[in-house]
Amino acid sequence: MLVRQIPGILDREISFTLIGEEPVAMASRRLGINCPVGLVIDRPSPYIMVAMNDRGKREVKIFSESLGARSVAGTWILKEGIERREIGDAISRLVSIPSVVVGPVVLANGTYHATFYYSSCDSERVSEISLEIFSGVDGLDLTYMGPARDPVQTLRSESVGHSFFYSEFTCKPADDVVGQRNIFGRDWVRIVKGVFTGRDLMAIYRPDGSGCPVFMPSPNEGLSRFNWISMDESFVPLLSVHESRGETIRVGSVFLETFKRPYLLSLARIREIFPGWDFTLCSLQEIEN
């Protein structure tokens, strides 16, 4: 499972909790809802996509419909802006650090639990910004800073009652793209930094045999287009890691069971757009407890 390589590349982890004040957080608190959250990095401010399961809770359906949420396989997908400017600024500052990657984010009983991974090469900068954020945002608590833990286990332990899938697909970009896609040649691993709305993939690279991981935007048209299509389908991966070996790129992602159909639809569409890239689904399996 490619995503389990994250602690071997980014050796540090920091986690926060934040007491939510917006409507979806208040509904979570009132109805006892526990759900994963997709954090989308956009300008001028990040926003969230919340997946609320409505099984057995009529109030969730009523609340979700009142906000114009989209229903996908028994789950309501709500897109909500981050209204508190200091929180949006804090997220933007943290992810601006080169090696910082957005990890699992969960909303539980009105409180957000957010995990970020980073390299010890950036420890001083992460410490500096984290302390400034802690002192400047009401309701924020720093709950963990230390060695990176298994991201899949973190997600499962904090998202009780949800089923997650892991999937891998491979593709073979055109020769001109393979040779020019980055400065690291054909053998590397990269962790997708998060879901960004810009054109390029934002990722942390570990070239074979290197020391500190390197941040670099990637202008890979095929995989960037896959991201855009995925967002159109309301699919937001919770974790994503790519591995390049020779001519082949392998893409591993963790996502909610709810997003299985949107994920497969996105892959089918990208195959049609880039027929020569040999997009091939290799693995699709539920993650066991």
Question: Any overview of this molecule?
Answer:
The chain has 289 residues and is α+β, with helices and mostly antiparallel strands. The strands form two sheets. Strands 1, 2, 3, 4, 5, 6, 7, 8 and 11 form a nine-stranded mixed beta sheet that branches. It has a seven-stranded antiparallel beta sheet with strand order 13-12-10-14-15-9-16, sandwiched between helices. It is built from nine helices and 16 strands. Helix content is 30%, strand content 37%. The model has no long low-confidence stretch (mean pLDDT 81). Helix 4 (85-95) packs antiparallel against helix 5 (123-136) and helix 8 crosses helix 9. It has two domains: 2-158, no CATH class; 164-286, no CATH class.
Features:
289 residues; alpha+beta; seven-stranded antiparallel beta sheet; 9 helices; 30% helix; globular; Ta1207
Structural class: alpha+beta
According to DSSP, the number of beta strands is 16
Poorly predicted regions are: none
Helix-strand topology string: HEHEEHEEHEEHEHEHEEEEHEEHE
Strand proportion, as a percent range, falls in 35-45%
Q: What would you call the shape?
A: globular
The first-to-last residue Cα distance is 15 Å
Largest beta-sheet details: 9 strands, mixed
Can you give the helix content as a percent range?
25-40%
Integer tally of domains: 2
Rg to the nearest angstrom? Answer: 18 Å
* Total count of helical runs of at least 4 residues: 9
Mean pLDDT: 81
